Structures are given as structure tokens and as C-alpha cells.
Amino acid sequence: MSAETEFHSRFNTVRHNVPASTPSFTLACNVYSRIPSSAHSASHRPATPPIIFTHANGFHKEIWEPVIGRMSAKWTAGDMYAFDCRNHGDSAVLNQDVLEDTFNWYSYAEDILKIVDTFGLKNAIAVGHSILAEAMRPGTFSTIIAIDPTMFPKSLFENPPLEDNHMGQLTLKRSDRWKDRNEARSKLLEKKFFKAWHPEALELYLEFGLKDVVNKDGSTEVTLKCPKYQEAICFAAVGGGVSDAFDRMNELRIPVHIIAGANSDINVAELVQLKVAQCTYGSSVFIQGTGHLVSLEKPQETAEQICSFLDRFAEAEQQDRLKARL
């Protein structure tokens, strides 16, 4: 049984297309729910808070499935939501005729809030990019788990326009068309970047991050659902978004837990400490043997750390409720 088949034997996936915060855009969203093992368990479903998973630049919603599949039954008993940023994954396909030449990270935050409103979510747990959304609407989330977050103080970060942006220019130079998924897999595994990924994450990237295309001569290829120009403009747009997110962390009145890669080139220990210090209720943990793409490289360890934090968070909440009654 393949990893994907095994995952879908345990979780039901309902796919939705919902309006984005900008009316001309649509968001592709997956809702995952654990399949009950019996009629009894189905009728006694615990009141687990909903969890929203948001992906990083260049990826897509399904990339979270290896993590979700490894989380404890306690924390996957409720509904879980993962959606594609408006210019990524299936959302990029839906919006291909209205994609813009610029990107604003606040639009991602607004779209997170749109998902919350569309599904009527209360006290949701956020995993991934969610700092700006909570800052824009305090009380949206009960807690945030940030995975090696790309947030920097303005004093440490300079972000040039696309024509001078190093990451943006590297993205524009990347290959984005292959004969088929087998060739794409072979070519990607020649890169150190993709070699570090867990095999399940890579297969999900090939399955859901690429789409089939028919050329004018009738030949077929596969290409990125998220056009590489769209990924590049996201890198060029991070200046305001990442510094604003850092600055606004001190506005949050909920726990913020950072899970960072011990070998991350984005989050050295001193910077993680700086981010934690920005939070009213901040904490952090490092996962050994991984870099910036923590959840893609180490889904088991990421799932364990998410659940470990949520266990502590739930225990603290219970203690607070007990104290309030005394």
C-alpha cells in the first residue's frame, strides 16, 4: 500500500473551491477528517479544535499530508483545513486568467481569514503562516505553531525588487517543464534541495504540484501548477510581509510556538530567540538533522513536536480553567 493510499484509508478528503478575500480569485481548499474506526467512535467524536495548515512559498496544500498522517488521533479527531495560496497549487490553476504581476503577503493573511469565515471556524489552531492573520483579527486562533517562520526585523533584512532579488532570480532560472513525472522526479533528485525531502513529500509534490499540459504539436509534458514567475514575485514581496509579521508578533495575546530546523539557514538560534522574545507567550524547539524545510524533511518529528506542544497547551488551558473556578 502506497503512503498516499494508506493516508486516504484513514482520512477522508473533501475538496472545496471557495471565494478568496479578493472577489476575482478562488481558493482550493482540502478538508480532512479522520475516518471513524467504528459506529461508536463516529457517534462519540471528541470536540477537537479545527486546525488550519498553511504552506510556504512554492508549495501546496497536500504537502501537509505526511505531517497530518503522523499526528496523534487526539489532535486529528477534528476537521483539518489546508488551502492553496491564490497563486499556488490548484488555486493557481483556478486563477490562471487573473494572476497578477505583483504579490502582497497581506493578501495571504486575508485569505486565511476568508477560510476561517467560510467554514465558520472558532478557536482554530494555526500551523504555518498565520502571524499576520491573527494580528489583523485578534482572537481568530487559540494558538499558532510557526514552522521555521520567515520573519525578520527590518534592521536585519533587505529585500530588493525582483530584478535584483537573488531568490527570485534563482526561481526564474529553475526548470519547470518535464516529459513526465518520472523525468521530473529524476531531475529534481539531482538537486541537493530535493534530496533532503522525505520521499512522501516529494511524491506529493510531483502528484499535486505539477499538472499535465498538451503542447501545440500534440505532445504532452508536465509543468508547475504555480508558475515560476509567481513563486519569484512572492520572494520579491517578502520584504514588507516578513518584517511586519515580526514587528506585530508582540501584538499577539495567544501562545506562539516556533518549530525550527537545527540546520536552518533562515532561523539561527539567536534569531529564533529574538522571535520568541517578541511574543507575549512564546516558545520554541529545534528539530535536529533538518534545515529550513522542516515539515518536508522530517514529517514524523514535526508531527511529534506539534502534538507535544498541543498537549502542553491543552494542559495549561485546563489548569487555567480550574484556577478560575477556585
Write a structural description.
The protein is an alpha/beta fold and 326 residues long. The chain has one domain: Rossmann fold. It has 15 helices and eleven strands. It has helices at 3-10, 39-43, 65-68, 89-94, 105-118, 131-136, 166-173, 181-188, 192-195, 199-208, 228-236, 238-248, 269-278, 294-297, 299-325; strands spanning 11-19, 26-34, 51-54, 80-83, 124-127, 141-147, 177-178, 210-214, 220-224, 255-261, 281-287. The strands form two sheets. Strands 1-2-4-3-5-6-10-11 form an eight-stranded mixed beta sheet, with helices on both faces. Helix 7 (166-173) packs antiparallel against helix 11. The protein is globular, with a radius of gyration of 20 Å. The N and C termini lie far apart (53 Å). 42% of the residues are buried. The model has no long low-confidence stretch (mean pLDDT 92).
Task: Compose a concise summary of this entry.
InterPro entries: AB_hydrolase_1, AB_hydrolase_fold, Carboxylesterase_BioH. With 326 residues, the chain is an alpha/beta fold.
Features:
326 residues, alpha/beta, 3-stranded antiparallel sheet, 15 helices, 11 strands, 41% helix, 19% strand, globular, AB hydrolase-1 domain-containing protein
Number of spatially distinct domains: 1
Contiguous uncertain segments of 5+ residues: none
Helix content: 40-55%
How confident is the prediction overall: mean pLDDT?
A: 92
- Rg result: 20 Å
Order of helices and strands: HEEHEHEHHEHEHEHHHEEHHEHEHH
Helix and strand arrangement:
Elements: H1 3-10, E1 11-19, E2 26-34, H2 39-43, E3 51-54, H3 65-68, E4 80-83, H4 89-94, H5 105-118, E5 124-127, H6 131-136, E6 141-147, H7 166-173, E7 177-178, H8 181-188, H9 192-195, H10 199-208, E8 210-214, E9 220-224, H11 228-236, H12 238-248, E10 255-261, H13 269-278, E11 281-287, H14 294-297, H15 299-325
Parallel strand pairs: 3-4, 3-5, 5-6, 6-10, 10-11
Antiparallel strand pairs: 1-2, 2-4, 7-9, 8-9
